Amino acid sequence: MSCDSGCQEALDHLYEVLDGECDEQRGAAVRAHLAECDHCRQQYEMESEVRSLVASACCEQAPEELRRRIITRITQIRVTTGSGSASLTVEQYRAE
Question: Are 49 and 16 part of one and the same domain?
Fold first, then answer.
């Protein structure tokens, strides 16, 4: 991939590379392009950093009290509807 013709192709497959879902040949071609193209490499590094930040933020758990309140509310909704699944509309939920 040259920088002139390969940017769009590299960017089209950027998420596949980040997710490890690219076949070996395409992944190698994209990585070779990233090694040569500052613009695409910066895009790759930014996307990689965003993914790292999101992953680290997702490791936090909700406080136990919040979790208990949510579970209690789900249980109340199920009991109110008389079924095993919550089937209230937004309007019904707000009315309670």
Answer: yes
